[in-house]
Every structure is written in C-alpha cells, then in structure tokens.
C-alpha cells in the first residue's frame, strides 16, 4: 500500500499542477472526481501487474475525460510493461509536453529515449531533468554513456565534472573519469584524478596502483603500495597487490620480502598468506635453485605451523618436493592435502601417479579406489585402480575396473591405449593369448611406440615362444624408444634368452641391472636363468638368491636355488 499511496501522491500532485488552482473548500466537479477515480483504479491494476486491464482503464479515462499528464505518464509506464515501446514513447512525450516542469515525466521519457537509442532526444530530455533536479545521478550517468557511445569523450568528462561540482567527489565519479582518461592514454591525468580519492579514502591507493601496474609502471606501483603498508601495517589488500606486482616482474626477492612481512603479522588471514606464497612461487624461475626450494619449503612450514588444516599449503609444499625429487615426501604432503580437503582433484592425480613411480602398488590400490569414490566418472582413476589390481594379481577385478575406465574415457587416445594394453596383460595372464594379441595389435596400430604394449607384447611372444622374430623386432624398438628403463632391457634379454642367444641376453640383462637403482626380482631371476644356460651355475644361484631376497614368498625361486637348476 505504501507504493500505491506514493505513486498516487506523485501523479495526483501532477494532476493538480495541470489543473487550475482553486480554494480547497470549492466543490470538486463530478467529472474531475470520476477522472480521479478512474485513474486510481488504473493505478491499482498497474500495481498488481494486471497491465492489460490497467492499460484499458487508463485509455478509458483519457477517452472519457481528455488527455491528462499524469494519466498519460502511467499509460506510458503500462505500455512499457507490455513491451509496446513506440506507444510508450508517444505517451511519455505527451505527458512531458503537458507538464514541462515535472521531473518524473522527464526522467521517464529520457530513459525510454536512451533505451531506444534516440540519443539526441535523450540528451535534451535529460538536460531538462537535471535543471529541475541537479542531483539526478542516473541522468548524469546516462549522459556520460551517450557521449561515450557517440565518441564525445570530452563531453563525457565535462558531464562528470558537472556531476562532481553538483554532488561532490565520489569513487563512482572518479573511476568513471579515470576510465575515460585511460582510454585516451592519459595515464598521469587519470592518476591525478585518483589522488583526490586517496585523501578521503586511503584504500583507493589500490585503484591507483592497479592503473600503474596495467601500464607496466611497476616500480611506482610498488612504492605506492609500500608507502600505504607503512601507514597501515594491516592493509592486507595492499600486501596482496604488492606481491602480485613483484611476481609480474619475476622479482623473487620482492615477493620474498612481502611474504616475510605478511608472515610477521599474526593478524593477517590465511588466504593472504597463501596468495602471497603463490606469488612467490610464480616469481621463481623454472630452473629453481636448491636454496629457493629450501626457502619456499620453509615458508610452507611456517604457514602450516599456524594453519595446519589448510589443504592449499600442503599442495604447494608437495609441488616443491616433486621438483626437488623428494617423491615419497611429496606424496605424503599431497595425502595431507586431501586429509583436509578431499575435493582437490589435482592432489588425487598426483598421489596415484606418485604411487606408480614409487611402485607402492598396495597404496595405489587403496588410493585409486578412494579416488573413484570421489570421482566415479573419471576414467583416469578407474584405469589406475585396474593397474593396481593387475600388480596385486587380482585380475578379475582389474578387468572390471579397466572396462569401466574404457566406458568413461571419451576422447583421450593415450589413456585408451594404456587401458587396452592393460586388458591385454590380463588376457595373457588368463591364457587368452589370441585376445591379448588382438588388443596389443590395436594399440600398436595407432601408436607403434607405445611403451606398455611393446614391452608386454614382446614378453607375451617370448614366454609363449611364438613368433620370436616379431618379439625381437618389438623389443628392439622398445629399448631404442625408451633406453633408460631397466624393465625394457629385462624384456629384451628375455626375448633373446628364449631364442637361445644367451651371450646377447647376458649383455642386455647387465644393462637392465645397471639401470635398475632399487633392484628387481624379475631382473635377477632372469639373470640367474641366463647364467645357468651359460654354464655358470654358482653365479646363477647367487643371482636367484638376490631375487629371492626381494620376494621371499617366491617358491619357484626357492626350488631353483635348492635344485641348482632351472625348473620349467
């Protein structure tokens, strides 16, 4: 009801302005009373948004009692609500012509003209409205927009100056002026405008600094922000922007100094510390020095000490540890991250990849299974679950996981190749050699140098002693394409062994041992088999013993050692 009363007061006041002033005690003519009743009924319908009936009522009032500014005004608003814009413009113009001193009519007409791109007409109307109401904010801003659309930037600046003179300085006016001046490449003039705001609002220094930064005036921006921080040591936005400024310059020392300053302020929030840490990281070059990593890890530990449940810092720390090749520690840091925020997708990815690098397949099984719970539609995690199940010899479950990975994988060819190669391994283990070969052939047809397919297909052909010539071709391509992997030389050696080329096999297995830093059960067992065929039984037994030390549950190795011979 307040809105209804307010609008009726505006419009009836306007009606009163257009009528002849008469004493209050004079009898109201019946015709005028009916006109007011019709207008009031139209207003009620308008306010309940029954625009068609309101339109009919206002039209009926005009037809019965003649054109009246207030009725025409409301008719125009109703026509606008009904999206009858041309008619709304005509009605608004008539209302304004009948009552030239009514601000609300001019405001409405100016808005309509502006929205209909009638810029010349809108300019004249808005100027008339501003004469009646000099603090008409929307009018000034519409004028500025019109001048900018027409490319009259000087007129736009003059309008903003008039607005400032009439209403006083404000952030809105200053920012509008600065935007225009920056468009004109008048950076110093824009900064000069901003100085007025800095005096009344010290935080406006952020806007000033942003202008300097966007114009590559980094030193000036940094100094401005440092001065602001000196005046207010808790000005956290200034710290953040200063860190970004240094990061844009790759100024490692600058970002480091800011981060130290932030960490010295216990009252500053974690988000600022984390952002500043990110800026410090971005300022470090790709060839990060050992001392840089040490400093960065120290910063991480300082933040973790004060904010131990914030996952983001653990991710930063883990990334650093990966760079410094501290793989196990990196994985532990990622695990801490998901402990506090299980939704960090990148951390889960890193964890399963590091599990593979560390050959911790029991951990990979546990982590990839958990990852599929949080990301059940992501094929990458299903693939790693299947891979872990293969390594732990749970082939039936592995096949299910890999089939799920394949169903979810839509456009990642490389992942599809890995999935197919892994499924082929399972078929090999289950004795389904033809299905295994078919999948290996599919992978190599699309990617002749796929390491997994080359390795396992070569091994399949060697162990089955079928098509050993092809096995040699594939395994030679394998070690040529991937010369740093010990397992690949182990496969090549085994292919040669099955062909009876024991001396060449021994050379290959020695290369595998040289490249295997941690030692491998398979490599030492194969080494023993090769030495046995070369007539070096004692050395063969020594190699088998090394293999058994790596897997004490291998009964086949126990028998080889006991019988001092190869047991088929």
From TrEMBL:
The keyword Glycosyltransferase does not apply. Keywords: Signal, TPR repeat. TPR repeats lie at residues 103-136, 379-412, 417-450, 521-554. Residues 1-19 form the signal peptide. InterPro entries: TPR-like_helical_dom_sf, TPR_rpt. The keyword Signal applies. It comes from the Bacteria. Gene3D superfamilies: Tetratricopeptide repeat domain. One of its GO terms (biological process) is cell division. This is Tetratricopeptide repeat protein. It comes from Lacihabitans soyangensis.
């Amino acid at each position: 009801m307040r809105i209804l009363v307010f609008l009726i007061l505006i419009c009836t006041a306007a009606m009163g302005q257009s009528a002849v002033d008469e004493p209050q005690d004079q009898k109201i003519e019946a015709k005028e009373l009916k006109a007011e009743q019709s207008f009031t009924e139209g207003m009620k319908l308008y306010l309940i948004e029954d625009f068609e009936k309101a339109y009919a009522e206002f039209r009926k009032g005009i037809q019965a009692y003649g054109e009246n500014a207030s009725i025409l005004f409301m008719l125009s608003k109703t026509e606008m609500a009904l999206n009858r814009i041309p008619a709304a413009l005509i009605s608004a113009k008539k209302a304004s012509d009948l009552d030239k001193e009514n601000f609300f009519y001019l405001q409405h007409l100016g808005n309509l003209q502006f929205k209909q791109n009638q810029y010349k007409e809108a300019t004249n109307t808005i100027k008339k409205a501003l004469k009646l109401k000099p603090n008409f904010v929307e009018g000034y801003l519409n004028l500025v927009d019109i001048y900018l659309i027409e490319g009259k930037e000087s007129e736009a600046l003059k309008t903003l100056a008039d607005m400032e003179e009439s209403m006083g300085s404000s952030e809105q006016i200053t920012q509008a002026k600065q935007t225009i001046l920056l468009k004109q490449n008048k950076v110093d003039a824009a900064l000069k405008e901003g100085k007025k705001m800095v005096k009344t609002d010290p935080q406006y220094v952020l806007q000033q600094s942003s202008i300097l930064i966007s114009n590559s005036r980094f030193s000036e921006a940094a100094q401005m922000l440092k001065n602001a921080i000196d005046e207010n040591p808790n000005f956290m936005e200034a710290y953040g922007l200063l860190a970004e400024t240094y990061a844009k310059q790759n100024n490692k020392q600058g970002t480091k100094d800011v981060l130290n300053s932030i960490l010295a302020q216990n009252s500053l929030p974690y988000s600022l510390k984390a952002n500043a840490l990110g800026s410090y990281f971005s300022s470090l070059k790709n060839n990060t020095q050992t001392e840089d990593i040490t400093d960065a890890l120290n910063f991480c530990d300082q933040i973790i000490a004060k904010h131990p449940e914030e996952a983001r810092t653990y991710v930063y720390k883990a990334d650093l540890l990966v760079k410094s090749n501290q793989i196990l520690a990196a994985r532990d840091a990622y695990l801490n991250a998901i402990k506090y925020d299980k939704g960090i997708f990148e951390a889960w990815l890193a964890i399963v990849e590091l599990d593979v690098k560390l050959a911790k397949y029991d951990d990979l099984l546990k982590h990839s299974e958990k990852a599929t719970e949080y990301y059940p539609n992501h094929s990458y995690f299903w693939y790693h679950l299947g891979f872990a199940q293969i390594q732990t010899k749970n082939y039936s479950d592995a096949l299910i996981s890999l089939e799920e990975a394949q169903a979810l994988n839509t456009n990642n060819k490389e992942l599809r190749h890995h999935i197919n190669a892994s499924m082929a391994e399972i078929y090999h283990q289950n004795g389904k050699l033809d299905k295994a070969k078919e999948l290996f052939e599919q992978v190599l047809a699309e990617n002749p140098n796929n390491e997994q397919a080359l390795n396992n297909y070569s091994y399949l052909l060697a162990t089955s002693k079928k098509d050993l010539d092809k096995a040699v071709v594939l395994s030679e391509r394998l070690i040529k394409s991937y010369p740093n992997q010990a397992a690949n030389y182990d496969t090549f050696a085994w292919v040669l062994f099955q062909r009876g080329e024991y001396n060449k096999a021994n050379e290959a297995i020695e290369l595998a041992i040289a490249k295997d830093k941690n030692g491998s059960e398979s490599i030492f067992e194969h080494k023993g088999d090769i030495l046995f065929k070369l007539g070096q039984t004692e050395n063969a037994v020594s190699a088998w013993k090394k293999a058994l030390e790596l897997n004490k549950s291998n009964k086949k190795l126990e028998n080889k050692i006991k019988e001092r011979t190869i047991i088929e």
